[in-house]
Every structure is written in C-alpha cells, then in structure tokens.
Amino acid sequence: MNKLYEDAEEFYKLVSKNIKKYRQEKGESQLEFSQNVGFNSVSFYCDCENNKNGKHFNLLHVVRIADYLKIDINIIIN
Rounded to an integer, what is the distance from CA 12 to the centroid of its chain? Predict the structure, then answer.
C-alpha cells in the first residue's frame, strides 16, 4: 500500500471520528443526524461514520455537517 493511500485513509478515519464525536455531543442518533444533515440513506451515513464498506464523507458532506453543527469545518478535518 502506498503512503498517499495510507494518509488518505487516516484522514477519512479522523474526519469520521470527529463527526461521530460531535453527533454524540449533540445527542442525536445516526438516523436523526443523517436526516437532519440531508443524507438520503442512513445506511450510507453509518458506513461513512464507521469507515465501513469503503465509504467515507466527501467535501460536500463535511460542509453540510459543519453547517448543521454550527462549527468551523477545520474542527472536523483537523
């Protein structure tokens, strides 16, 4: 596995971990949160949050989530 791919996977894991943390702090289930943020599929959201089945949040997802949480996007990606 090349270094760039490993770095990307670590980045996706960090983003997912941060999103999960803030979702839990907000006290919302994955279903509630995914609907409030605008995901059409709770299953897809869960896969992204848990880094399952090769799924991860894209930039638009992260922007929507940061907007919904009313936090700076940098808090999610750093």
Answer: 8
